[in-house]
Amino acid sequence: MSDLVRTEKDVRRAVAAARGQGKSVGLVPTMGALHEGHLAVFERARQECGYVVASIFVNPTQFPPGTDFETYPRDLESDVKRAQSAGVDLVFSPSVEEMYPPGDRTFVEVTGPLVECLCGPHRPGHFRGLTTVCARLFNIVQPDRAYFGEKDYQQLLIIKQMVRDLHFPLEIIRVATVREPDGLAMSSRNRYLDPREREAARVLSQALFEARDRFTSGERNADSLVDAATRAVAAEPLVSLQYLELRDAATLEELHEVGRPALLAVAAFVGEARLIDNVLLVPR
User: Fold this and answer.
1) Which residue in 38, 122, 126, 256 is the catalytic one?
2) DSSP notation for 119-172
3) Do 98 and 77 reside in the same domain of the chain?
4) Domain count of the fold of the chain
C-alpha cells in the first residue's frame, strides 16, 4: 500500500529508509489524473527499482496564460488508489507552497533547438516550468532512475539534456506510449472530450500510422510523409491542427529525408482539449 506524503522532509525520510535497506529508487513524475499509460510507467519502474516514488503535482509554472491550469482534472484519492494498484511505494503530493516557497526566485531552463520547435513556440514558458519542477523533484527524491512516457517525446529529450548538463546522478528511462484500442494515445486530457470529439480524436493516431506505413513501404521524403499525415487530419472537421512536423529523433532538427531515426509529431485541438502524439520512424 502506497504511503501519501506532502512535504520534502517526509519524502527524504522515506527514501533514506528505503536506501538503508539497500533498495534502488525510481521516480515517476506526474500531474495526476492517472490512466493506464501512467500505470505502465509505474509498472516499468516497479520491475527495475526496489522502491518507487510517484509525484502528483499539477505544476502551475508549466501552464502558459490562458491554458487549462484551473480546470486540469484533479482527484488525489483516486490517483493514490491507482498508484497503489501498480505497486508504487510512496506518493508525494506537495502543495504549490512546498514546491515554490515564498520568496522563490530560481528557475532551471534548457535553451536551444530542443525547446524552439514543436510545442515550444505554442506554449511559452512551459518547458522552463517543466525543467524547474523536475530539477526540484530530482533534488528532493534523489532517485537512481526517473521514468517518462514516450508520448511527451520533446519533454523527454529536454529532461535528458538538463540531467546531462547539471550532472544529475540518475538515468532517464523512456517508456513506450500506451494507446486505447482504437489507437488514440492515452492522455489525462482525453477526459475533456465529449463522445463526438472522442471519435474525431482518433484521426491523430490514424494520420501518424498512415505516414508510418508509407515510410515502411519506402517513402523517405519528409514533405511527402508530412503532407500525407496532414491531409488525413484535415479531413476531420472537429480537429484543429496546431503542428505536424518531422524532426530528427535525437536533436529535433528539421529533416528533408529520413536517413536516420526521425520523430513525426502532431499537436491539435479537439474541442477544448489540446492533444499531442508521435511515432518514431527508424530506417533499417
Assistant:
1) 38
2) TGGGSTTHHHHHHHHHHHHHHHH--SEEEEEGGGHHHHHHHHHHHHHTT-S-EE
3) yes
4) 2
Domain co-membership, 19 together with 107: yes
Instruction: Name 134's Cβ contacts closer than 8 Å, sequence gap at least 6.
Output: 29, 146, 159, 162
Q: Indicate whether 183 belongs to any domain.
A: no
Domain containing 91 equals 3-175
Residues 41 and 170 in one domain: yes
What pLDDT score does 1 carry? 64
C-alpha distances out from residue 142 to 19, 93, 135, 193, Å: 11, 16, 10, 37
Sorting pLDDT into bands at 50, 70 and 90, what band is 66? Answer: confident
41 shares its domain with 130: yes
Q: For residue range 113-172, what is the model confidence (pLDDT) as tens digits?
A: 999 999 999 999 999 999 999 999 999 999 999 999 999 999 999 999 999 999 999 999
The CATH number of the domain holding residue 58 is 3.40.50.620
Query: d(Cα 53, Cα 142) in Å, to the nearest integer?
Result: 10
pLDDT, tens digit (0-9, with 9 covering 90-100), for 68-123: 999 999 999 999 999 999 999 999 999 999 999 999 999 999 999 999 999 999 99
Contact 88, 52 (CB under 8 A): yes
- Name the pairing type of β-strands 273-281 and 239-248: unpaired
Is 38 annotated in the active site? yes
170 with 229, same domain? no
User: Based on the domain organization, do 13 and 126 belong to the same domain?
Assistant: yes
